[in-house]
Predict the 3D structure of the following.
Amino acid sequence: MTALIHQILALICQYGGITAKQAWDHLIESGLFPNIDKSLFVEILKRMGDPETRLLEQAPDGTLLLGAEGERITSTFDFYAVFETPEEYRVLFRGKEIGRLPMALPYQEGHLLIFGGRYWKVLEVDAARHEILVDQGKGGRPPKFGGDGGPQSDVVVAEMRRIYEDVAIPRYLDQQAIDLLHQARQSFTAYELQSRSVMSYGDGFILLPWLGSSGQLALQLALISNRLNATSQSITVEIPRCSKDDLQKGLKKIAEGSTISPESLAMLLPEKTIDKFDRFLDAELQAKNFAAARLDTSRLKEVAAILLTDLEKL
């Protein structure tokens, strides 16, 4: 939606003013934004003209003009750059900043997060100040992950699993990579991950849904919606301090209950802005935008049923 807002403002700058019909023909009817239907288009225009937003004004003849805020942002040097770096939140421990994290993640009070190689418990998320207040967590030794990888697709995760289950050594690997692959396959076999996707871990559980980032985030939020303190770590979902009965109830509700909309899951996020002009959208439109870009619920019920079956075997 950020790109659509940007293009509407750019068209007004180009022509001095446009009608809603002209904007529709240029941007939607032309096929530039095929996922935007008429009702959503109208909703976005109304939001842009809201007194809180002030991106647009409408002349008596129906022509759309720049509002006060629209004039301000279109006059800035970086207006024509559509995208920007995601908003980061300061992580504070006892009043001292220990680092920053992107908030396109479902951090909420009571969650555990791994930061700087340690577990931290989230005490509060302050959206107004862009701060996450934490205390030292007691979740045991955190696993070691290298780097800060980007989103993974279902195809990539499926290929990861295939490689773990295989015995062949890819020709392009050097000796260090071969050693690491052997270690990974040994762990994969030792934990019997070829035949199970749920493991007991301390006073809770680790789930391996084998989903890409969008599907795994949807699963995590669905579990959170069932009052389970789920956190994502690489390709796993960890649920500390959780009984088997509570996890069974949550998974069963996801697997057998009514279909969960991506928008309702996105509403659980304290911060839903992911693009440059998302701040001008209301919470509902932000949720729609986030859901379309970052959430995939297509396999949610199927994967929950698999996890439930494996959990019952423990």
Notes: The chain has three domains: 2-74, 88-136, 164-260+297-312. Residues 263 and 288 are 5 Å apart (CA to CA). The first strand starts at residue 56 and ends at 58.
